[in-house]
Write a structure and sequence with these properties.
This protein has 156 residues and is α+β, with helices and mostly antiparallel strands. It has two domains: 30 residues; 121 residues, Protein of unknown function DUF192 (Jelly Rolls, Sandwich), CATH 2.60.120.1140. The chain contains three helices and nine strands, in the order αββαββββββαβ. A seven-stranded mixed sheet has the order 6-5-8-3-2-1-9. A two-stranded antiparallel sheet has the order 4-7. Strand 2, helix 2 and strand 3 form a beta-alpha-beta unit. This is DUF192 domain-containing protein. InterPro entries: DUF192 (IPR003795), Saro_0823-like_sf (IPR038695).
Amino acid sequence: MTFHMFKIISIIIIVGVVGVVVFTMYVRETDPLSTYETKTIQMGNANLEVLIADSEEKRTNGLMGVTKLSTDTGMLFIFPDSSPRTFWNKNTLIPLDLIWISSGRVIGVSSLSSITQSGNHIISLPSPDAVDWVVEVNAGWVRARGVEIGTEVHIK
């Protein structure tokens, strides 16, 4: 292989790598939820497709900036331990139901207004007790699916 051919192949490889990096950054910026793993959970008789927030960064970002969730879609926040938790509506553009879960059972449900519904005031909601999971879904989903305190929750 000549030196000229080696330079051309090297340039093609570098351009390809840069292209992949730029494309990956673009996808993460325009659709940050595309990097989340998805699973199905069963909550009582209802099935829910959830995005898994199992890292500090994913739990911190949550559904901030999301403008729409499909009907039976939500986010499952998985914590490394069972502790009291607080969720807020910072940059939350849609109203949500929060489902507080401890050891596979619902221990409480809260309604979280969007940031615009709260007049751009950040609202913080504490869990009713220590939890290891929290699920965020569209407002009204809990009532429509009959989820209540004591409902069993598990990953399918």
